[in-house]
Amino acid sequence: xxxxxxxxxxxxAGSMIIHAAFPILVAVLISTIPGMTLPTKVxxxxxxxxxxxxxxxxxxxxxxxxxxxxxxxxxKSIFAGAGIGGVVTAALTAVPLYIEPLRLVVxxxxxxxxxxxxxxxxxxxxxxxxxxxxxxxxxxxTDFSNVAELETGTTALTPEQYEDQTVKEMMMGxxxxxxxxxxxxxxxxxxxxxxVCPPVAKTT
Length: 204
Fold this sequence. Notes:
mainly alpha
């Protein structure tokens, strides 16, 4: 039995919206866990995202099969389709998590990327700040505390600030890629889950 195009497009759109929200929720969750290294955060991003994607794909494909087949005919096929969708989502979500240029293509649409404040820049920053505080007129102090901005042409961040920025950029990049993965995953999964629909009897 052919898929109902209206239901297919509706479930793809719904999956796309939900998948765009996953990375934001995961980023908020990760930010509440202290002492976690960046590589661990990335792995957690992928694991939680893939699990949530599987559940979403399972729900969307169940709706799709119910509509197209007049009821659920095979949870096994839905499970298989959701598994395919989950793998697709994990693969595409990994792209912005591990490939910085592709991540920045998306994140810089919403926020400016700042460079890392290197140890040498921090040393220069501390020296000039101390000198400025020593010679500045108390009535008209000169602010040299942001010398890193003068050195790089943009605000430089400490390692801690840079890691926080990286997590936010991952969130934005992952949301973009995950959204398309969610829609594409339903489309791929539907080719598996809808094959169990019984054929429509032809009337003569």
